[in-house]
Structures are given as structure tokens and as C-alpha cells.
Design a protein that fits this description.
This protein is an alpha/beta fold. It is built from 14 helices and 7 strands. The longest helix has 28 residues. The chain is 49% helix and 11% strand. It folds into 3 domains: 47 residues, Single alpha-helices involved in coiled-coils or other helix-helix interfaces (Up-down Bundle), CATH 1.20.5.170; 224 residues, Rossmann fold (3-Layer(aba) Sandwich), CATH 3.40.50; 40 residues, no CATH class. Strands 3-2-4-1-5-6-7 form a 7-stranded parallel beta sheet, sandwiched between helices. The chain binds guanosine-5'-diphosphate.
Length: 369
């Protein structure tokens, strides 16, 4: 049998130079704008606004970095920039997505985001990741996530801020939404890990809250607290593919039963359960339909705007509470007293209410000085 008899075509010679994979002429579309050459110079707020309004992603990214900055001087610039962007904001649909690590959030957001882009939407993805604020080891922020989406010209993907308190990160995300809206993104996804407080913070800044779940984790409520289920406008059971389809169907029934036990929502919405596969891209149309129907209905019954107003008033209160509280505890006179009072309280010699009253009186007396 004749390997030796076979005549190989000439161009199969080992000496032939293979062309290899052709490279795109420019990997980063922003590089051609020349902006990268001026990285060190801070643009003026007007230049930021112009860049953002023109949909320049690199400018948008730098503006978000500015917003996340803890530097006093930058905070002032950030405040000005947000005010300049506010008139152009508010027109997007803000979608929160939460789920335990491994539920498939990034895979889902990539598939769903690409599908929305195919529908002609511009999609921005922001993240609130409590792990990165505490340990610097981020659950959400790793670079290989959402590769196809983050390099797509119709999308903007921003990993979670890596410093600050949850309140601070939530605030930066809320303000980043404003900037993304001014940049013309009409769909903004805020991703968070469903393991702690962060989803409550996300619920305060989004219009629609999607909970991504897995089937077959034994006890179906896999670490997701009941309270998070209650916040969901839609439950999606991901990985409903292959051997998992049947289990996903059973989980769907179980979640539907659980949702029925919750009191009806004031806005008249009844959250549904959908099975989907982020990898095989099934069920995504149904998810889109749910979101579209929700937005349509809530606009019709006035809840969409009312909900945002309620959120803004909540954020006002929250922001005041936080500022007052940190000013209080950082006050030198208070610092001097707190330790002793704490001691007395733990020894049962002083009521916590009385201590609070005394400290507040002291604080306000200090303020008058
Ligand atoms: P995240 O931690 O919630 O962001 O989850 P990832 O998106 O990183 O997904 C965790 C793992 O689940 C990865 O190995 C994914 O490939 C896999 N995964 C995500 N979605 C699906 C799905 O729809 N079907 C299957 N079979 N695997 C999936």
C-alpha cells in the first residue's frame, strides 16, 4: 500500500511559508483617534462631555475612572461632569443581573448582550463586586470574561471598581450609568454576585432585576436568600441544556411555586420563571420578551418613572445617612468619648439609647462651636 507512491502537491512542502492567521490592522478601534497619546493630560469636563456624547469608549472609561477616584480634586471634576451629563441621561433600560458564582452570569451576559446588539441596541455592562472591595480578589473582574462582548464595537464592558465600600462602589456604578446613558447606551446591565448585600444596592439603581439560577443543587434555594428571590422581576434557570434539561424543568416548577407564595407586587407585575442556556443561546428570546413587556407595561401604568423617583429619593436619604454617620464617627470629640461609652454599655452600666443621645448632643454642640 502506497504511502510512498502518493505524489504530494508541491505546495505541501515543509518549506512553504504558511500565511497563518491574518491579524486585524488595529486591535483597539480607539487607538486610531490619537487619544491614547494624551493619556497623562486630564481632559477638561467639556472635553469629557464631548467625547462621551460622541460615544468614545476610551473617554467614557476614563470618565468612569474619574468618578471612582477618591481624590478630593477629582471628586469636584466628577461632580461637574455628572451634572453636565444628567440632561442626556435616563433614557436607557437598566437591568440588574445577580446569581451565585458559577451560575453563568458572564456567559449569559455575553450571549444576551450580543443578541441585544443584533437587535440594534447599544449595551453597556457594569459590575458591582463586593469581593473586590474587601479582598481585592475579584469574583467578577477577571479579564477573560465576556471577551466577544467587550471587544464588540456596539458594547462597553467595565469591570467592577476595585476599591471602596459597597456604598461607594454602588454610588460610582449609579453615576457610571448616567455617563453610559449620555454616551448613548440604551441598555445598561449591572452585574453583581448574589451572595451578600450588593444585590440590594443594585436593586436600588436598576429598573428590572433578573435572578440567574441553577437547577439541581439539591436544595433549590442554593445560598440565594429569600429576600433576593423577592426582589426578582424574572428568574432564569440557566444551563438548561444536555442532561440538565429535565432538572431545569423541575426547578422551574419549584421556583414558580415559591414565587406564588410571595405577596403580589404593587406594580402589578407577576415574576415568571424561564429556563435558558447561555452556552447554547436558548431561552434568550423569552428573556428579552419579558423585559420588553415589563418596560412597556410599567411605562403604561406610570410605575417606570415612579420607581426611578423612589430610587432617587432613597439614594438621597442613604447618601445623607452615610455622610452624616461618617462625619459623626470621624469627629475627634466623638472619637474620644465613644470608646468609654462602649465599655460602659458592654458592662451594662449605660443604656445604648442614652449613650447615643449623649453622643449626639455632644456632636451638635461641637458643630455650633
Ligand atoms: P459566573 O461566575 O456566574 O459569571 O459564571 P460563568 O459565566 O463564569 O460560568 C461558570 C461556568 O458555567 C463556565 O464554565 C461556563 O462555561 C458554564 N456555563 C455558563 N452558562 C452555561 C450554560 O448555559 N450551559 C452550560 N452547560 N454551562 C454553562
Amino acid at each position: 500500500m502506497g504511502m510512498s507512491k502518493k505524489i504530494y502537491p508541491k505546495d505541501n512542502s515543509a518549506l512553504r511559508v504558511q500565511p497563518g492567521v491574518t491579524q486585524p490592522s488595529n486591535l483597539n478601534p480607539e487607538l486610531s483617534t490619537g487619544l491614547h497619546r494624551f493619556k497623562k493630560e486630564k481632559p477638561s469636563t467639556e472635553a469629557f462631555l464631548k467625547g462621551i456624547r460622541a460615544g468614545n469608549r476610551s473617554m467614557l472609561g476614563r470618565a468612569i475612572t474619574l468618578i471612582e477616584s477618591e481624590l478630593v480634586g477629582e471628586k469636584e471634576t466628577a461632580r461637574k461632569l455628572i451634572n453636565l451629563c444628567l440632561p442626556y441621561s435616563g433614557k436607557s433600560v437598566r437591568l440588574g443581573i445577580t446569581g451565585v458564582p458559577g451560575a453563568g452570569k458572564s456567559t449569559f451576559i455575553e450571549s444576551f448582550g450580543l443578541q441585544m446588539i443584533a437587535r440594534g441596541k447599544k449595551v453597556a455592562v457594569l459590575a458591582i463586586d463586593p469581593s473586590s472591595t474587601r479582598t481585592k480578589g475579584s469574583i467578577l473582574g477577571d479579564k477573560t470574561r465576556m471577551e466577544a462582548l467587550s471587544t464588540h464595537p456596539g458594547a462597553f464592558v467595565r469591570p467592577s471598581a476595585t476599591s471602596g465600600t459597597l456604598g461607594g462602589v454602588a454610588r460610582a456604578t449609579r453615576e457610571s450609568i448616567i455617563l453610559c446613558e449620555a454616551a448613548g447606551f440604551d441598555f445598561i446591565i449591572v452585574e453583581t454576585v448574589g451572595v451578600g448585600q450588593s444585590e440590594t444596592a443594585v436593586a436600588q439603581i436598576v429598573d428590572f432585576f433578573l435572578l440567574l439560577m441553577l437547577a439541581g443543587g439539591g436544595d433549590e434555594l442554593q445560598g440565594i436568600k429569600r429576600g433576593i428571590m423577592e426582589m426578582a422581576d424574572l428568574v432564569v434557570i440557566n444551563k438548561a441544556d444536555g442532561d440538565n434539561v429535565r432538572k431545569a424543568g423541575l426547578a422551574k416548577k419549584e421556583y414558580e411555586n415559591a414565587l406564588h407564595l410571595f405577596p403580589a407586587l404593587a406594580n402589578g407585575w407577576a415574576p415568571q420563571v424561564i429556563t435558558a442556556s447561555a452556552v447554547f443561546r436558548t431561552g434568550l428570546d423569552a428573556v428579552w420578551e419579558q423585559i420588553e413587556t415589563y418596560v412597556k407595561l410599567m411605562r403604561l401604568n406610570g410605575w417606570f418613572d415612579k420607581h426611578r423617583q423612589q430610587q432617587d429619593l432613597f439614594l438621597l436619604r442613604e447618601s445623607i445617612n452615610q455622610s452624616l454617620s461618617s462625619a459623626f464617627f470621624e469627629n475627634e470629640a466623638i472619637k474620644g468619648l465613644v470608646k468609654g461609652y462602649k465599655q460602659q454599655i458592654t458592662e451594662g452600666k449605660l443604656s445604648p439609647y442614652e449613650a447615643a443621645q449623649k453622643l449626639l448632643e455632644k456632636y451638635f454642640a461641637e458643630m455650633k462651636k
